[in-house]
């Protein structure tokens, strides 16, 4: 319904939506191409292997804020597609992912000059050294990193 009736929608908060499928997300971003903010944090049914996050990136080039919090399936190819397709991105939260590397984050930071906040807390491949390196290369971006002890 949102995709067909709310084509000018610019912000959607689907945080903790337990029944959002990759097909539902595809319909949403195909119909609501004006989206600038999207919260998909803690949506356990969305899986990167379906291509849903790459399709999201390709469909909403105006995206400024994206929350993929606690989706452990987000991977490098998703981040690279955001870098390729979402140059206006200002805020990205990928807290808790295990599959994103420093290489894809560097591509994202280079491709998205408006990025001001990147949350990589509890991302197992991103350690303190990586955060320090990226922070020195991209001093205008606040890179948030919380660690487990």
TrEMBL record:
Record-linked Gene3D superfamilies: Ribonuclease Inhibitor
Coiled-coil positions: none
SMART domains in the record: LRR_CC
Signal peptide span: none
InterPro entries hit by this protein: Leu-rich_rpt_Cys-con_subtyp, LRR_dom_sf
Descriptive protein name: F-box and leucine-rich repeat protein 4
Gene of this entry: FBXL4_1
């Amino acid at each position: 319904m949102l995709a067909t009736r709310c084509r000018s929608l610019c912000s959607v908060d689907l945080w903790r939506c337990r029944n959002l499928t990759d097909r539902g997300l595809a319909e949403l971003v195909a119909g609501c191409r004006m989206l600038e903010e999207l919260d998909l944090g803690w949506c356990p049914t969305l899986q990167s292997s379906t291509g849903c996050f790459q399709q999201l990136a390709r469909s909403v080039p105006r995206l400024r804020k994206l929350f993929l919090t606690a989706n452990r399936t987000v991977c490098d190819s998703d981040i690279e597609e955001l870098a390729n397709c979402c140059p206006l991105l200002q805020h990205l939260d990928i807290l808790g992912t295990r599959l994103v590397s420093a290489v894809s984050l560097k591509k994202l930071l280079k491709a998205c000059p408006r990025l001001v906040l990147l949350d990589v807390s509890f991302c197992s491949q991103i350690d303190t050294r990586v955060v320090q390196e990226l922070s020195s290369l991209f001093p205008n971006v606040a890179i948030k990193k919380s660690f487990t002890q």
